[in-house]
């Protein structure tokens, strides 16, 4: 029987069992659990180069088993097979979410509506590969005949965050041909990033990639318009500019054509790829340009490895399932509303901001799949930063604030294996890496245990005490490579799906962002001086203040 749509989650006996366990667990401290030496064996799991350590979570093996039982009760295995096989999991937009199809090997097949998707996916990869090789080999020339030196990706949200994060993470893997090329990212609607950048670029050697699933997002289209005007400023022929300096990546060929991008410079992807899941598609072109096509393919292979693990591994040892179950345990049962992502590696600086979209846009929902309000907390607020930097910024709150916060500590174990300079600088970098790992382990330990030695010491003032009891996950990568990054990102994608199944929400739509876009249209008219009815007093007042200041400044 498919229980997922019959019994509300909170009425399942497995749910109630966990509520009871959570009540008891709220009364205990992580210190009480830490003594159990068997914990590490029971709560540490591996998939390829990734190790997931849940031993600092506020749970014991009975709770983990209870969570797995809940996953079985809501038929998570069936949901996973449905996701990966192309079922219409995005019920409000009536389509599948097949980002996993983008990383299938060429020998695989996945039939959707009678059509095998894999050949089209690999055709698109071939097109990307061709573009990358023409740019890297300096055959792609600008209007004046000079080779391209700078590529600017114009996109926002999923058409920006994933490629940007991966480019920063994998820079050191760039082959020599890619090293000659600068890859830049522009997303903000106000034009600041673009205007800062344009000052240092030359139109004749700059190529813009317009990345937008819809090709209608105002942020991207307004930056694209400015970029085109900048290209045309010296009276250069528009057709030549459009032919040599703009690539379009979208599902919407009509809009790309209407904008002026020739068909030969368009790379399409498909409606069944969600925006925040699209870095594996042609939206990943900046990654391939930055680190080479071979490394991009290696990322896809890493993600595919995780897909296979997700598909075949039993729930109790399945990394994305476990990560998702722990996320639900913390947010819903233990009532922890904040979650911090703390990579101990500067290369993963933008991984937290990438995850904020992935998790909060996916699971920031309060209505279940049948349209009813949910009776429990869903996605927590996520934020994060490179862990060692965050220690000097917001860890104070983690250690002594009033909020319960769960954390993910992420660190590669090996680093600087083959640093080009093997002299003293190399040794120094190696020791810096050890220092990073030491800090990572120290912080998760203090967050777990606090400082029990001061508990009974009357001489320690309260402001020097550490209560601990903040749960965390430690995720170790043997090392950070394109392959392990691919696996890591897919791990979180599937974690998000697992949580959505447990919460019975649709993680693949984002209706919550629509109203603001509509009102912004009206607001634009109001700012241009049109009389618009129906604004509230607060907004009217601000419009007037802006109009007055603008008039005064003219
Ligand atoms: O407004 C939210 C959103 O639709 C995201 O889901 C998406 O990643 C982003 O805007 C950009 O959309 P597009 O790729 O269509 O420009």
What tags apply to this protein structure?
binds 6-O-phosphono-beta-D-fructofuranose, 47% helix, alpha/beta, six-stranded mixed beta sheet, five-stranded parallel beta sheet, 554 residues
Describe the protein.
The protein is of the alpha/beta class. Helix content is 47%, strand content 11%. The chain has helices spanning 13-26, 30-34, 39-43, 61-73, 76-85, 118-136, 161-170, 176-179, 192-198, 218-231, 238-245, 253-259, 285-291, 293-312, 319-333, 351-363, 387-390, 395-400, 424-449, 482-503, 514-527, 537-553, and strands at 44-47, 50-53, 111-112, 115-116, 150-154, 182-186, 206-211, 246-250, 266-268, 338-343, 381-384, 405-412, 472-477. The strands form three sheets. The chain has a six-stranded mixed β-sheet, sandwiched between helices. Strands 6-5-7-8-9 form a five-stranded parallel β-sheet, with helices on both faces. The protein is globular, with a radius of gyration of 25 Å. The N and C termini lie far apart (70 Å). The site of 6-O-phosphono-beta-D-fructofuranose has 14 residues, from loops. 6-O-phosphono-beta-D-fructofuranose binds next to loops.
């Amino acid at each position: 029987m498919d229980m997922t749509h019959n019994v509300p989650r909170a009425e399942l006996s497995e749910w109630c069992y966990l509520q009871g366990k959570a009540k008891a667990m709220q009364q205990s401290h992580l210190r009480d659990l830490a003594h159990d030496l068997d914990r590490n064996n029971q709560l540490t799991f591996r998939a390829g180069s990734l190790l997931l350590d849940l031993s600092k979570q506020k749970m014991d093996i009975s709770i983990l088993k209870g969570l797995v039982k809940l996953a079985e009760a809501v038929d998570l295995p069936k949901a996973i097979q449905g996701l990966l096989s192309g079922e219409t999991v995005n019920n409000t937009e009536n389509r599948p979410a097949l980002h996993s199809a983008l990383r299938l090997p060429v020998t695989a097949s996945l039939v959707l509506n009678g059509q095998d998707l894999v050949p089209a996916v690999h055709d698109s990869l071939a097109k990307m590969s061709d573009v990358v090789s023409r740019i890297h080999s300096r055959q792609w020339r600008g209007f004046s005949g000079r080779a391209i030196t700078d590529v600017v990706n114009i996109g926002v949200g999923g058409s920006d965050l994933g490629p940007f994060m991966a480019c920063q993470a994998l820079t050191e893997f760039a082959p020599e041909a890619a090293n000659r090329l600068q890859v830049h990212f522009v997303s903000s609607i106000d034009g600041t990033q673009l205007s800062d950048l344009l000052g240092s670029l030359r139109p004749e050697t700059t190529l813009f990639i317009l990345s937008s699933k819809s090709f209608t997002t105002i942020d991207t289209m307004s930056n694209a318009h400015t970029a085109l005007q900048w290209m045309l400023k010296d009276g250069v022929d528009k057709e030549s500019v459009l032919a040599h300096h703009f690539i379009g990546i979208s599902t919407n060929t009509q809009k790309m054509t209407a904008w002026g991008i020739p068909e030969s410079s368009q790379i399409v992807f498909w409606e069944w790829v969600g925006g925040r899941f699209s870095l594996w598609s042609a939206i990943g072109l900046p990654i391939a340009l930055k680190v080479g096509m071979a490394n991009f393919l290696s990322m896809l292979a890493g993600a595919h490895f995780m897909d296979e693990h997700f598909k075949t591994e039993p729930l109790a040892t399945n990394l994305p399932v476990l990560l998702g179950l722990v996320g639900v345990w913390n947010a819903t049962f233990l009532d922890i509303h904040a979650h911090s992502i703390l990579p101990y590696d500067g290369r993963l600086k933008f991984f937290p901001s990438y995850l904020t979209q992935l998790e909060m846009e996916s699971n920031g929902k309060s209505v279940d799949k049948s349209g009813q309000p949910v009776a429990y907390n869903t996605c927590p607020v996520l934020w994060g930063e490179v862990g060692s930097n965050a220690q000097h910024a917001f860890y104070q709150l983690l250690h002594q604030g009033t909020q319960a916060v769960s954390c993910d500590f992420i660190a590669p174990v090996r680093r600087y294996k083959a640093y080009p300079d093997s002299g003293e600088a190399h040794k120094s970098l190696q020791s810096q890496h050890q220092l990073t790992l030491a800090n990572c382990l120290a912080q998760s330990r203090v967050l777990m245990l606090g400082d029990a030695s001061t508990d009974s010491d009357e001489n320690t003032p309260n402001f020097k005490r550490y209560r601990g009891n903040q749960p965390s996950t430690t995720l170790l990568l043997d090392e950070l490579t394109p392959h392990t990054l691919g696996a890591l990102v897919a791990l979180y994608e599937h974690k998000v799906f697992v949580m959505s199944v447990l919460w019975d929400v649709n993680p693949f739509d984002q209706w919550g962002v629509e109203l603001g876009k509509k009102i912004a249209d009206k607001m634009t008219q109001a700012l241009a001086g049109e009389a618009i009815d129906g604004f509230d007093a607060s907004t009217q007042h601000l419009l007037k203040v802006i109009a007055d200041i603008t008039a005064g400044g003219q």
